[in-house]
Amino acid sequence: MKTSTDTMSKSARAAKPPDLDVKKLALIGAGKLGEGLLSGLLSSQLLPASRVVSTVAHQPRADYLTEKYGIKAHTDNHQAVAGADLVLICLKPQQVKGFLHEVKKELRKLALIGAGKLGEGLLSGLLSSQLLPASRVVSTVAHQPRADYLTEKYGIKAHTDNHQAVAGADLVLICLKPQQVKGFLHEVKKELRKDALIISAAASVTTALIERELGHPARVVRAMPNTPCLIRHGMIALARGKHATDEDISLAKEIFASMGRTVVVDEKHMDAITGLLPWCCIPASTPPN
CB of 241 within 8 A of CB of 210? Predict the structure, then answer.
């Protein structure tokens, strides 16, 4: 006699688990643990072999994994993590830091909004420090002659279209006058990526204001540079917004390191710092060509 329990058991065995909503999984390290995970993932049909790539230290091991499991396997961590939705790290503890440093996300596109004295100073410092190449930078200014000057001098893309500039940008650097920021955010919030990091050097503009104007939990860092930054001997105070991460602060430090020393403070102390750092608010106006 067939019981309801028997029927349920057969149904459970027959049911295929749903596919993971992962287009690419990068398995970093495929020793005993890594290979065990790989075998379990594929045998459970959580995702097909065509969506998995693994890296190992030596090519013969990679060839073995490819032959046995039908996955892509090689020794290039950069290639493995590029475009991955999920990264499984199965390395020795002492290898993890080096791996993370090796593959940390590179900026694909930086949008510099406003390129007056401060904006151009930042641009010059970024490019000279080789933090990213000119081909990944786009800047917007109020007038086309100024844009042409920036393109000719620095080899970047420059124009007057904020929509085009922020579209697809990983990082948006705001170097506008305070009274221009609200209008800019309202103008571009539909094009702006939800996961974009926003660093604002606009004096007196709080991270809360930027978050509120964008209407989503944006990652915002506020920066306050002083005048000596223009000759790369300045001091820059940095404050994180509600949703900014430690990584965001680290990136902001790297960006402003070309202009001087950085210090991270609570945003509530920014106004006090304004009085301590001489001429904190560098004019955002565009100098004549």
Answer: yes
Say if residue 182 is exposed, middle or buried (CB neighbours under 10 Å; 0-12, 13-18, 19+): middle
**CB 263: neighbour CB atoms within 10 A?**
13
Classify burial at 105, counting beta carbons within 10 Å of its beta carbon; exposed 0-12, middle 13-18, buried 19 or more. Answer: exposed
Q: What is the pLDDT of residue 18?
A: 56
> What is the chain's alpha carbon radius of gyration, rounded to the nearest angstrom?
25
Edge-to-edge strand order for the sheet containing 25-28? 72-74, 52-55, 25-28, 86-89
At position 173, the amino acid (one-letter code) is L
pLDDT digits (tens, 9 = 90+) for 152-204: 999 999 999 999 999 999 999 999 999 999 999 999 999 999 999 999 999 88
Give me the phi and psi of 218, to 5 degrees please: -75, 150
Residue 267: DSSP 8-state = G
Output the CATH code of domain 110-276. Answer: 3.40.50.720
CA atoms within 13 A on the CB side of 31: 6
Distance CA 194, CA 44 (A): 34
> Which CATH number is 22-103's, of 3.40.50.720, 3.20.20.80, 3.40.50.620, 3.30.530.20?
3.40.50.720
Look up residue 118 and give its DSSP letter.
Answer: H
Q: Note the helical H segments in the chain.
A: 4-14, 32-43, 59-69, 77-81, 93-103, 117-128, 144-154, 162-166, 178-188, 207-214, 246-256, 270-276
